[in-house]
Design goal:
The chain is α+β, with helices and mostly antiparallel strands and 631 residues long. It has three domains: 218 residues, Rossmann fold (3-Layer(aba) Sandwich); 112 residues, no CATH class; 172 residues. Helices cover 50% and strands 16% of the residues. The chain has 25 helices and 20 strands. Strands 4-3-12-5-11-10-6 form a seven-stranded mixed sheet, sandwiched between helices. The longest helix is centred in the N-terminal third of the chain and has 26 residues. The chain is globular and about 80 Å long. The protein starts with a helix and ends with a strand.
């Protein structure tokens, strides 16, 4: 791996900076408010430098390099990345310079910050760059933060919580205790009226010595003036996401001399963190694309020239996608024709490297394990990890269990389970070791692509509807990979099992998943054909969800696309219309939808007037006295 001067400098400074960090933290940790005669607190204080050193070294290792799929070695963070534009204007992302925030300003800020961005926008990379800046120039930021802690939320175990995990990182012991408390109950008695009774109840709470963990953790963080980095709220298991977000909110409200920097995908911005200032990573502009490509390629002019001739050139405004393109161009000297082929070609590059390694190690094995089988095998592994195991961090044991579940389908010998699993972990480039004997996909976008590749191959089922609520992004990619993206989306959204009337008690969840699905589809840019099916799908969506400003922004972007606009006009043709008291148009279709799909086709919709009026203003439709007329 090429190592930059800055990377060498960081490693040289690491020991000295560690001493400064621990001294600064200990000076504040030694406050009389925190120190008591309790043995665990004394032990935490005396062992802090040694215990923190392990975490500090992990932070250094994680932040200074970035693993890239398709490359045998990770790249240096400072050599391969640039500072991205960060905006305070979440939905407009204005180019006005006064709305831009620098990495240095984030470090100097005393506010809790929620950093949002699209998939692959550079959230984690920005975190790494901020950490490098903090460690390299600690003296500059020591008044703002005396100690840095990094929690990668995808690593948060299901059986614990954020408070316990922070203490685990610092090796501070805690214990669970059964606490008795009195609860007052009020009941109605026909003779006595309202009667109050008291009952003794029990609950399990966690303590460090005699201090409740809910008080101890913020007290600790305040006393050491900590800078707590929480990377990947969207990567939390759905089973614990809601409770963890509540923990983050509770913790942030108690931090007066400490601060939190958290990251989340923009599509998951429905998390309620009112005590945070929200900033968004802006899309790359042409100058940034040129600057990044110049870091990768000796002569980047050919790459840039070819990129801007491609139909997916706008997708390069995401760092992750630009990186994929750079890797492919560096390897092959050309770019794929279509957007979805970028993922496909990258996976084939991974397979080629896997094959190259196998040829070196043992040429005689897996002769029937063709490239197509490898892709299908890895896709099913990804699918099972994503939707069945539901973990982003997984052990060798989990991979072995998956192997035994599917190996016969791919004619892979049972007795070679450990060999194949070892190769997947070590040589495919898909997976990197996150902690001892635990692994994760190098890039979440590739995990989602592989999962989507398997989804496209299996029939719709009740499970598909469950996936829509649990994790809709792979479904968005599957839509793009299908032979007819419009029909695939229609089969999903208008599926009888997903009829919104079935989810009256889950309308908020339905709206959130639909928002995530359509937001991700915008990024993946599917090639929709004009059809009544597609138009009906969008009319149904507009009519069914709880519209707010961010959802309206996504719908506005979709309706700007020619295929969706024309499809909506087709679906509206000859429909009856009337203006409702709530200011919406009531639309009633008068003709059957000739569809190839087994779907439920709604015939009436309540559509906000702006959508119909805009089409009228653009002379796409006319409103007759009772019917919509196409133009």
């Amino acid at each position: 791996m090429q190592e930059s001067i800055l990377s060498i400098t960081i490693k040289a400074l690491a020991s000295a900076t560690l001493q400064k960090i621990t001294k600064s933290a200990l000076d504040k940790f030694s406050s009389k408010i925190l120190i008591s005669q309790k043995s665990e607190l004394k032990k935490a204080l005396s062992n802090f430098p040694k215990k923190y050193e392990n975490h500090y070294n992990e932070i250094i290792k994680w932040s200074t390099t970035i693993p890239f799929i398709g490359l045998s070695k990770p790249k240096s963070t400072d050599l391969s990345t640039i500072e991205l534009l960060i905006s305070t204007d979440i939905y407009r992302n204005s180019n006005n310079s006064k709305n831009k925030i620098t990495e240095t300003q984030i470090l100097n800020s005393d506010e809790n910050i929620l950093l949002v961005g699209a998939p692959g926008a550079g959230k984690t990379t920005t975190i790494k760059r901020i950490i490098i800046e903090y460690i390299t120039n600690f003296d500059r930021y020591s008044n703002s933060a005396s100690c840095i802690l990094l929690i990668r939320l995808r690593e948060l175990p299901l059986e614990t919580n954020l408070y316990k995990h922070i203490l685990d990182v610092l090796n501070i012991k805690y214990e669970n205790r059964l606490i008795k408390y009195t609860e007052t109950l009020e009941q109605y008695n026909k003779t006595l009226g309202r009667v109050k009774t008291e009952e003794i109840r029990e609950k399990l709470e966690t303590f460090v010595d005699d201090i409740n963990i809910l008080d101890f953790v913020p007290l600790l963080l305040n006393k050491i003036n900590a800078f707590l980095v929480l990377d990947g709220i969207d990567e939390l298991s759905k089973k614990i996401q809601s409770t963890t977000v509540k923990d983050i909110k509770k913790l942030s409200l108690k931090l007066k001399f400490s601060k939190i920097l958290a990251t989340v995908r923009k599509s998951e911005l429905n998390v309620n963190l009112a005590n945070f200032t929200t900033l968004e990573i802006s899309s790359l502009n042409k100058d940034q694309i040129y600057e990044i490509s110049n870091k990768w390629l000796v002569d980047n002019k050919t790459f840039v020239s070819e990129l801007y001739r491609k139909p997916y050139r706008d997708l390069a405004n995401r760092p992750i996608y630009l990186t994929f393109l750079l890797i492919l161009f560096e390897k092959y000297g050309y770019l794929p024709p279509q957007a979805h082929e970028v993922y496909e070609d990258l996976v084939h590059l991974i397979i080629k490297e896997w094959d190259d390694h196998r040829d070196i190690v043992r040429q005689s094995k897996y002769s029937g394990f063709s490239t197509r089988k490898k892709v299908k095998f890895l896709s099913e592994v990804s699918y099972l990890l994503t939707y069945q195991i539901k973990q982003t961090i997984f052990s060798s044991k989990i991979l072995e269990e998956i192997y035994l579940k599917i190996n016969r389908k791919y004619s892979l010998p049972t007795e070679e389970m450990k060999d194949v699993v070892s190769e997947i972990e070590s040589h495919t480039g898909l997976i990197s070791e996150s902690q001892y004997k635990h692994f994760e996909f190098s890039h979440l976008s590739i995990q989602e692509y592989l999962c989507a590749s398997h989804l496209v191959q299996i029939p719709y089922s009740q499970e598909t509807i469950k996936y829509f609520f649990e994790y809709p992004e792979p479904l968005a990619i599957a839509t793009c990979l299908s032979g007819d993206p419009g029909a695939w989306l229609t089969n999903l959204v208008l599926n009888q099992s997903l009829n919104v009337t079935n989810f009256k008690n889950k309308l908020k969840e339905f709206t959130s998943s639909m928002y995530t699905l359509l937001s991700r589809l915008l990024l993946e840019a599917p090639n929709f054909n004009v059809s009544e099916e597609l138009g009906t799908t969008f009319l149904y969506t507009i009519s069914s969800v709880e519209l707010d400003s961010k959802f309206e922004n996504v719908l506005d972007e979709w309706i700007k696309t020619p295929a969706v606009e024309a499809s909506i006009c087709l679906a509206l043709a000859d429909a009856k219309h009337s203006l409702l008291p709530n200011g919406k148009y009531y639309i009633k279709r008068t003709k059957n939808l000739g569809t190839r799909s087994f779907i439920f086709v709604p015939t009436s919709y309540d559509i906000p007037t702006k959508y119909i009026d805009n089409l009228v203003a653009k002379k796409k439709i006319e409103l007759g006295k009772t019917h919509v007329k196409s133009i």
